[in-house]
TrEMBL record, chain A:
Topology term for the membrane: Multi-pass membrane protein
Leader peptide range in chain numbering: none
Superkingdom of origin: Bacteria
Keywords carried by this UniProt record: Antiport, Cell membrane, Ion transport, Membrane, Transmembrane, Transmembrane helix, Transport
Organism: Geobacillus uzenensis
Record field: transmembrane: 6-24, 33-53, 59-81
Sequence similarity: Belongs to the CPA3 antiporters (TC 2.A.63) subunit F family.
Name of the molecule in the record: Na(+)/H(+) antiporter subunit F
InterPro entries xrefs: MrpF/PhaF-like
Annotated PANTHER family: NA(+)/H(+) ANTIPORTER SUBUNIT F1 (PTHR34702), NA(+)_H(+) ANTIPORTER SUBUNIT F (PTHR34702:SF1)
Amino acid sequence: MTVMFYIALALLSLAIGCFVYRVVKGPTVADRVIALDAIGICLAGIVAVLSILLETSVFLEIILLIGILAFLGTAAFAKFLQKGVVIERDGNH
Amino acid sequence: MAGALLTLISAIGVLRLPDVYTRSHAISKSTTLGMIFILMGTLFYFWLKHDHFNSRLLLAIVFLFLTSPVSAHLISRAAYYSGVRPWEGTVRDDLAERRENRTKSAE
């Protein structure tokens, strides 16, 4: 049964390799951002499989943290792509 | 034990990505499904085998399920408004008609 987890780990690493290729070679900035988001989510999955393999449940908060960070990064990049700045200013001050 | 099977299925689902990874939507959806499978597998593993129900994992599943479409929509909207047009380099045939409809409706 442990072999299945190792196979899953290898497949996830392969997926991350494909995403890294997309980040390096991506034709547009949006592709790169999407691939970075997917890398973050895959990293959360790797942490989950690793916590099963190591029989500990202390890594499971990290999954939530990685998910939140990936979403925040993608949202900030989307704002930056659309408007050029991350934090808007009104110009009154 | 249910976790192992689900994790393997989801890893194969994640491996499906190299076929469609030019499409940002496809990446987002397939990765979300695979990750939800993996996290549910982990949840059931710790629940059934160690009698330890982890609520943070459930929270992570819900959060991922909520934010992944939102982030995909945000990034594609930003790409459209910045004039990047990320769907111009794709070669898939079944998306071409949809793409034309989309650009037509956008014009």
